[in-house]
Inverse folding.
């Protein structure tokens, strides 16, 4: 199947895979597309299979990545997803090959991507990445792994900034950091903020609006990072049910 490059010229008519359309009253896809539009001049590339499904790869020069990573000269893969009926058909390999080709064409040292010790929601599968030659170059608490695929044997290893390695913040209560890198975060971040307000909880919502803010984050995953009493809890975008379970587990 054909791979489409989503850019200025077609973003209005192409869906972005993980949020095909907005439901009435929602702005999930539109906020993600607005975020992408602001990144195209910074080198963002979004490629997808020409289907209505979650088969895509998104990458950007690491200097412009919304991640606290030091990887000058590398291409940072922000999101890489092949789901459901499209798995096992070589589409992931084809998208990765496109990313490698583009990166080499732009003179990059290699690829870098945020993953985890084991497969986690919203993070790329470490087993697949390591099978494709990616190597571990850094870690952050509690489960994050920074993986890289160098194009040259002596290429300098990327690393995570110290600000994100311990998974801690200096504020108690519930603290949620998020950005519009993912079309789902705005909806669910606001939803749990409303629940916290109704329940009278100590809750702080912080949205990253610039890459500089994201590059100095207390957690590697700046799309969505939830902290409780100063410690990182999860990068999973929580539904109402999961958030209420989180509260119940802590007696809140």
């Amino acid at each position: 199947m054909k791979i489409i490059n989503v850019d200025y010229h077609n973003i209005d008519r192409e869906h972005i895979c993980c949020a095909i359309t907005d439901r009435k009253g929602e702005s999930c896809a539109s906020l993600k597309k607005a975020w992408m539009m602001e990144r195209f001049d910074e080198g963002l590339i979004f490629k997808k299979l020409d289907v209505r499904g979650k088969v895509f790869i998104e990458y950007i020069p690491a200097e412009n990545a919304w991640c606290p990573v030091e990887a000058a000269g590398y291409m940072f893969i922000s999101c890489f997803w092949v789901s459901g009926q499209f798995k096992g058909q070589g589409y992931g390999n084809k998208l990765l090959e496109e990313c490698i080709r583009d990166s080499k064409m732009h003179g990059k040292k290699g690829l870098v991507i945020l993953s985890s010790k084991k497969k986690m929601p919203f993070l790329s599968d470490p087993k697949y990445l390591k099978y494709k030659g990616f190597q571990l170059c850094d870690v952050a608490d509690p489960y994050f792994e920074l993986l890289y695929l160098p194009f040259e044997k002596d290429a300098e290893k990327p690393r995570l900034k110290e600000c994100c390695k311990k998974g801690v913040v200096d504020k108690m209560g519930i603290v949620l950091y998020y950005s519009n890198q993912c079309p789902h975060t705005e909806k669910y971040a606001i939803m749990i903020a409303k629940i916290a307000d109704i329940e009278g909880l100590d809750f702080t919502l912080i949205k990253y609006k610039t890459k500089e803010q994201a590059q100095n984050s207390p957690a590697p995953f700046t799309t969505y990072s939830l902290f409780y009493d100063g410690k990182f809890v999860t990068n999973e975008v929580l539904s109402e049910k999961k958030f209420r379970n989180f509260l119940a587990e802590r007696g809140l």
Remarks:
- The first helix runs from residue 28 to 39.
- The CA atoms of residues 24 and 184 lie 15 Å apart.
- The longest strand covers residues 74-82.
